[in-house]
Design goal:
Helices cover 25% and strands 27% of the residues. It is built from 6 helices and 15 strands. Strands 3, 4, 8, 9, 12 and 13 form a 6-stranded mixed sheet that branches. A 4-stranded antiparallel sheet has the order 2-1-7-10, with no helix packed on it. A 3-stranded antiparallel sheet has the order 5-6-11, with no helix packed on it. Helix 3 packs across helix 4 and helix 3 crosses helix 5. The longest helix has 19 residues. The N and C termini lie far apart (111 Å).
């Protein structure tokens, strides 16, 4: 009996037998131990936000105004990026100057810059043709700047592109479509129907009775009266005519500067015209005959294909909308 108790005690004390035996005695089987699944936490990468533009940006409305600069004829928001192009409808009668199929309008638009900028340049194009330019524009930070310019548009559809800070690496571009009704002073050809002359029929000749001619007194002559000299109209800054002349001054001045040494055939003529306009601008007054002569000379350049090509060649190329 003591021997059996000793064997039993030894079995319980054995590390290999004790757990199994103890479990067998109790009739209980322990389940295997399992570790919970490990979860991996991934920290999301921060998204990169493109910096907002800080230089000059086109904004607001494209406004066609009367010569007073305040009365709006038509206006529409300027579209940027891939937005829909807004449409403005005007007539030839809304232009302040028309000549040979060209209508000149007074236009205002706005720009704003997040930082101060000096000496910037803005350009307007219509169907890829340069139609207006403003230079040496200074902007204060976060202060709206209104630009007043006088582009030439043609009858029909004009896809106008506004390029702000055009000479920078990141210009701001906006779009608006201007439809112009009428002819803008283009000559119209009319065909005159042929005239038919009926045959002449002479009445029968009858000799009238002879009568003595009545006595007439010699005509009395009176000395001519010299009429007073007509008053010649004169134009000063603020008038529509002065705005036209100042626009021609800006364009011709730009042409003289940029076309120098470019082999433009009429360059010397352009220099002379610019000098004559500059003299009038400095005098701040121009009479009607001088104004008519200067604008006639300037319009000869506006309608000259060679001048248009030369001006387009010196303008940086931009993608067409």
């Amino acid at each position: 009996m003591k021997a059996q108790a000793l064997i039993f005690s030894m079995m319980l004390a054995s590390p290999l037998v004790a757990p199994s035996f103890a479990a067998t005695l109790g009739g209980i089987t322990e389940p295997p131990k399992t570790e919970p699944p490990r979860t991996t936490v991934t920290t999301p990468k921060p998204t990169t936000v493109a910096p907002l533009p800080t230089g000059p940006q086109v904004t607001g409305l494209f406004r066609i105004v009367k010569p007073d600069g305040n009365t709006v004829i038509q206006q529409a928001p300027i579209g940027t990026g891939s937005s829909v192009i807004n449409v403005i409808n005007v007539a030839t009668t809304d232009a302040f100057l028309t000549s040979n199929g060209k209508c000149a309008f007074n236009v205002k638009y706005d720009e704003v810059s997040g930082v101060a900028a000096t000496g910037t340049t803005n350009r307007l194009f219509s169907n890829d043709t340069l139609i207006a330019q403003n230079i040496k524009i200074d902007l204060s930070a976060n202060v709206l700047k209104t630009i007043w310019t006088q582009p030439y548009l043609v009858p029909g559809q004009n896809n106008v592109k506004i390029v702000v800070n055009a000479d920078s690496a990141t210009p701001s571009v906006g779009w608006v479509r201007v439809n112009v009704s009428g002819t803008c002073g283009a000559p119209t050809t009319t065909t005159t129907p042929p005239t038919t002359t009926p045959p002449k029929t002479e009445p029968p000749k009858t000799e009238p009775p002879r009568t003595e001619p009545p006595k007439t007194e010699p005509p009395r002559t009176t000395p001519p009266v010299t009429p007073p000299a007509p008053v010649v109209p004169k134009f000063t800054p603020g008038s529509a005519e002065w705005n036209n002349l100042f626009s021609a001054f800006g364009y011709s001045n730009y042409g003289v500067t940029q076309l120098k040494g470019k082999n433009f055939a009429r360059y010397s003529e352009l220099v002379k015209l610019n000098a004559d306009i500059t003299t009038v601008i400095n005098a701040k007054v121009v009479d009607q005959p001088t104004y008519n002569a200067l604008m006639s000379r300037w319009n000869s350049f506006v309608m000259d294909p060679a001048f248009q090509a030369a001006m387009k060649a010196i303008t940086p190329s931009t993608d067409k909308k």
